[in-house]
Amino acid sequence: MNNLKDKNILLCVTGSIAAYKACDLLRVLRKEGANVQVAMTQSALQFVGETSFSALSNYDVITQIFPSKEGETGLEHVNLAIELDAVIVAPATANILGKAANGVADDTVSTLLSICEQPTIFAPAMNFRMWQNKSTIDAVDALRKHGKIVINPEEGQLASLHEGEGRFPNTHTIINSLREVFDQHLPLKNKNILITAGPTREHIDPVRFISNRSSGKMGYSLAVQAKYLGANVTLISGPVHIDPVPDVNMINVESTLDMQRELNIYINREHNIDYIFMVAAVADYIIPNPQENKIKRKDSTLNIKFSKAPDLIQELSSKTDAKLIGFALETEDGEKNAKEKMSNKNLDYIVLNYANEPNAGFETNTNRVIIFSKKGSKKEFKLDRKDRIAAKLLDFIINNK
Ligand code: CTP
Fold it and tell me: What letter would DSSP give residue 61?
């Protein structure tokens, strides 16, 4: 999904401690194919140097209305402004909200905002008291009345270490808001998605465990793609070597019983989960009584007692109305086994992949899958990168095939 490709964006950075987060926003916009020119206020320059933004955007940064030296970028260089598709003010301080709401044009960014008629998104970041200040509230109301988009800041710990509403909105929220400007339909907007990924670990003693080769890549790819489609994503992950997915509610677990506990929390809390993707390679057998102390190498054989693990996805089917998607990893009789699992576990979909195919299944960056639905449809997605497979699977499921 690339509706930001070749869009011309003006990114206005104003003076908040969150100014550094605009670098990440710029990076993602560029990755999505947008051309971005950055303008910064003098106070933004106190927080982040213009070099970072010019390097990331590949354009000179606009910092002054009247450049003192020839060749410096000033408003006469804002030829972009004429062809601009959208403006993002991120982070937006209380100051710039107030100025933009009242038509004040006394510095680079406020002047630009006063001349740009393109769709404009403000992503505020400030102290919670400033956000609740009557003047800020009035400014936000006025901007919204004028058709501008003002994203609500997030709640959480602020730079001042106070808790409250005022945190810079996350990158995906800003990007999704921009996509909406370009009329991109976000089919998973307001949908809650729960994904499990990676292996589980069953402890034998304090230093040893039994696990499997799942890398977590398929589940993490689904989390990223679902986020792109506007979903609220919770990812319950076993131990993997992948960076956490930004803007996703990440929950790290180790054992099957940990995963069961977290799943139950999410089902019981009535999070109104719409889809559950059970991608994790959950243990089939767990060790009910791990040794408290390290097992010493003294006996010639070692017996470990396993007991059958609870079938987590099967347990969920009676507890939730969410669509349940299982992942079957097979080595033989794939279609037959996968369909049996779909029916025994009461699933809406099952995604079959093979552990014994080159470049597919565990640990690889690619996969070949076949998805079956309870309704009887079947679709194969040929060998491709896991992120693309994830996007195709979501498309199939969202469209209720
Ligand atoms: N699953 C689960 N709980 C388990 C084992 C598996 O929720 N204890 C889920 C997996 O996350 C997956 C689906 O069931 O979505 C199918 O997993 P798979 O390992 O292929 O099936 P099993 O039921 O474990 O059958 P087998 O290992 O015998 O093939």
Answer: P
* Pairwise CA distance, residues 274 & 279, whole Å: 16
CATH of region 192-291+303-399, choose from 2.60.34.10, 3.30.720.120, 3.40.50.10300, 2.10.260.10: 3.40.50.10300
CATH class (in words) of the domain with range 8-181 = alpha beta
- Structural domain boundaries in the chain: 8-181, 192-291+303-399
**Of 35, 212, 232, 353, which one is the catalytic site residue?**
212
CB of 149 closer than 8 Å to CB of 169: no
pLDDT at 246: 78
Which residue's CA lies nearest to atom 9 of ligand 1?
313
Whole-number Å distance, alpha carbon 238 to ligand 1 midpoint, is: 15
Residue pair 55/30 in contact (Cβ under 8 Å)? The answer is: no
Q: Is the CB of 324 under 6 A from ligand 1?
A: no
How does pLDDT run across 197-252, given as a tens digit for each residue? 999 999 999 999 999 999 999 999 999 999 888 899 999 999 999 999 878 999 99
Atom nearest to 281 CA in ligand 1? 11
Estimate the crossing angle of helix 217-228 against helix 386-398, to 10 degrees.
Answer: 60
Query: Which residues have C-beta within 8 Å of that of residue 258, sequence separation ≥ 6?
Result: 200
Residue 205 CA to ligand 1 center (angstroms) comes to 24
